[in-house]
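Class, study these two lines:
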Amino acid sequence: MTRKDMLRIWFAGEDLGRVRVARRPHALWETVLSLHTLRTRQRTALPGWRTGALNRLAAPDASAALRVLRPLVPARGYFPDFLTPAGGEAITDGIDAVVNTPPRRVAAELALLAAGTGTARATRLRDVGEALAVYHDRALAPYMPRIRALVDADRAVRARALLDGGVEALLETLRPALRWCPPVLEADYPVEQELRLDGRGLLLVPSVFCGPTAITLLDPALPPTVVYPVGDRPDHAPADGLAALIGGTRCEVLRHLGAAGASTSELARMLGISVASASQHAAVLRRSGLVVSRRAGNAVVHRITPLGAALLHGGA
């Protein structure tokens, strides 16, 4: 059997108490990973994003920005850690951090990039900052409300797991992108990589454009961070037959529920519909035996039933 490369994140005892989930989308992680998405054609949780982004990126200033960014973000493999700085949740703060990266670090990371791609290119950080701003404005800014809603819904799922079962239960919800095998959080990875937290804790960053493989920084001295795909991300388009049978939106409701379930308001944010409409769709699925609903405080949480899962996955 061929041995797979793995990412292994080793936890010390105190690290479990220092796990955090990012409060909002990380603008620069989403920017860089969306560039990957454009080049690899992987699916996202944003219907129509690729077409809309490509149309906006056809403008002359956006085309110039892409010429700057593409050599830094290859379709596969390593890209420089300085493109996704800690504290770069807001695009302006992130770009400031990129532009002010120490020259020695920039040179070292560009050398790593050149070793992987076989090309080397001098890069002015001021040009990179301007290109990131233009690309983000064209490709991501129009979609940020939807991206924030997806991340908020994902955080709610993680928070519910944390309240129900503690940090280890939260880590269990990260499957299949990440697997919790105490004391290691592991993932299939393009290369063999280990990260020892040594009491520093771990920042989990939900991402609309990540996936299906989780990703971390290469430099182990940087703040420990792992980016993972939002839990409601549809890896495959809805089955035509099921969508024809129950309707496209209800098919998407089943896809978005997943193992952890979701509240009515979370479903509404995920799907971009009203709370009343989400409630109505859930009620129809519940009466059909595809969803079970339970009240949790002020919210109603919906979970897919075995029958619903079987229909969703073609009877598997």
